[in-house]
Hints:
This protein has a domain at 1-74. 78% of the residues lie in helices and 0% in strands. The chain has seven helices and no strands. It has helices spanning 8-12, 14-34, 42-66, 69-72, 78-103, 111-143, 149-157.
Amino acid sequence: xxxxxxxxxxxxxxxxxxxxxxxxxxxxxxxxxxxxxxxxxxxxxxxxxxxxxxxxxxxxxxxxxxxxxxxxxxxxxxxxxxxxxxxxxxxxxxxxxxxxxxxxxxxxxxxxxxxxxxxxxxxxxxxxxxxxxxxxxxxxxxxxxxxxxxxxxxxxxx
Length: 158
């Protein structure tokens, strides 16, 4: 096979922009939590797991699309895989956001832990929203919505 080629247009696409935002926001979430004494609170272990797990997977998907590996491995239903991934990430980020926000204690004896945990809650919420938007766009791509009239007519009658 041929070597992977960088797809610069992917970076300017909505999918590329959302994945880039998810990578940056996810990095903020887990690094803010990691900078606290999260190991003393079980709730933050869950937030750390969700944010780090989806950060790594988002980077893998980002590289896959950036190098156009999705076209090389065309037998994988990428729109469906991406839709399921984004939906699961959205649901688990909802739980991580609620857990993180509920565990923030304003009377924390370490002010910097409070600030970092509160910021992590905010960024977990924003990350959750970006995954939700990605789920919407992934669903539309999977269903073929947003394509031209000729394409949609062919898929409607198939």
